[in-house]
Amino acid sequence: MMQILKMAFRDLGRNRRRSFFSALAVGGGLALLILMSSVVAGEMGSAIESAINLQTGHIQIRAATYDENKSSLKWEDLVSNPDEVANKIAALDQVETATPRLYASGFLSSGTQSAGARITGIDPLSPASDPYREGVISGDYLNPDDRDALLIGKPMADKLNLEVGDSVSLSLNTADGNVQDQTFIVKGIYTTHTYSFDSATVFLPLAKAQAMTRTENHASTIFVLLKDTTLTDSVVPALSVSSNLEIKTWKDLNVLFVEYETFAQSYIAIFYMIILAISASVIINTLIMSVYERTREIGVLSAIGMRGGRIMMLFLAESSMLAVGGVMMGLIIGVLATLYFNINGFYIGDMGLSGMTIADTIYAKLTMENLVNLTIMTFVVTLLAGLYPAVMASRMQPVEALRAEK
Fold first, then answer.
1. Distance between CA atoms of 136 and 154, rounded to whole angstroms?
2. What's the domain range around 107?
3. Is 249 inside a domain boundary?
4. DSSP letter at 81?
5. Eight-class DSSP state of 312
6. What is the C-alpha separation between 398 and 283, in angstroms, rounded?
């Protein structure tokens, strides 16, 4: 076997440039696979994390009749005594925080400009509100007792030409079906780096939102964050709620994300196959050229007693060496590229899908599982690519091979 390896190494060295670029093609393919896999993993992981922290939480408790698409404010569609329910849930060991939230639809007006908005009443002091508190880029964050102040996203502020301290008219629906108007002061402008969320969400203190919508002591939902996302399924059975309430997990509330991830994985698998096919074709072409260039040599080896099986092993050894070299280069290039985009990311601005909390910058996320799987896949495909040229060389007849022209 050692003799076969020495011969294979020598044969590859005959045309070092071709051998190098063949291995580089394999390495480039693997590097591209690693980067693509990391970007998809980073995008989906970031989108789901953003959706949980900004919109859905890990779990929501709400009335069974509540329709989030309509932001119903009827008392029968809301959670009564929300503070009591939230405190009961927050007492569980697995729960990080639980807080009531109230949602209402409305619009903001400033001069001749107006924009639709989802009004969200929050407890400013709750840890669940940290992303908004930490996202304030101008002005100040809300206080629980604010009565004429609101917090708006930077995209909406830009659209309405608003700055901190400006007055803006807010109109929203109330529990009795009427419309309530009030002038507010822009106390702060925030960004979560998620355009679809920031451009539509306006925050008020929960008490003010309840007073303005006439839903005192009621909330649309109890927003629950857990200490670990993996605890979701185990926490649900431990929750004890009344019969008129229902429990929704982040998977139930982010069905679009789950479907999109499945869809994306299916398409990314097709890209994997295309990239690997291109890399394999380079290896096949390289070894077939090598077979034709060494036809007389193969005839000599056969004539002196080397069997077809050993000739096949010789070419398989060459493809193995190309695979090893290519995989090593691919790992170096792929990991370095992923590390770069893990730090700097891909900036996509407001190109995210409507209704999905995709951040304006996507960061690559490399997992050991993906790295190992892609490495093994590339190595195996490269070996299989060398199988056809190896079989072709092993089946050459010595007499015909010796007669071949140089």
1. 9
2. 65-242
3. no
4. S
5. H
6. 25
* β-bridge mates for residue 248, sequence order: 60
The pTM is what? 0.73
Separation in Å, CA 49 to CA 12, 54, 58: 49, 8, 10
Q: Is residue 59, in this structure, part of any structural domain at all?
A: no
The CA-based dihedral angle spanning residues 67, 71, 74, 75, taken in that order and rounded to the nearest 10 degrees:
80
Which is nearest to 97 in space by CA: 118, 72, 64, 122?
122
CB atoms under 10 Å from CB of 9, counted, come to 13
| 209 within some domain | yes
Please answer whether residues 252 and 129 qualify as being in contact, where contact means their C-beta atoms are separated by less than 8 angstroms. no
Asked if 208 and 84 sit in the same domain, the reply is yes
What CA–CA distance (Å, rounded) separates 62 from 100?
10
Q: Are residues 72 and 46 in the same domain?
A: no
Cα separation, 296 vs 298, whole angstroms: 5
Alpha helices in 294-386 (DSSP H): 295-303, 308-344, 368-385
State how far the alpha carbon of 213 is from the alpha carbons of 64, 210, 291, 311, 393, in Å.
Answer: 20, 5, 81, 83, 82
Residues 336, 288 within the same domain: yes
pLDDT single digits (tens) 332-344: 999 999 999 888 8
Same domain, 117 and 231: yes
How far is 364 from 375, CA to CA, in rounded Å?
18
Indicate whether 27 and 70 sit together in one domain: no
DSSP 193: S
Helix, strand, or coil (residue 150): strand
Q: What angle do CA 49, 53, 55 make, to 5 degrees?
A: 110
The two structure tokens encoding residue 96: 């990080």
pLDDT tens, residue by residue, 115-154: 889 999 999 999 999 999 999 999 999 999 999 999 999 9
Residue 310 is assigned to a structural domain of this protein: yes
pLDDT band of residue 398 (cuts 50, 70, 90) is: low
- Total domains present in the chain: 2
Task: Provide the phi-psi class of 186: left if phi over 0, else alpha when psi is between -120 and 50, else beta.
Answer: beta
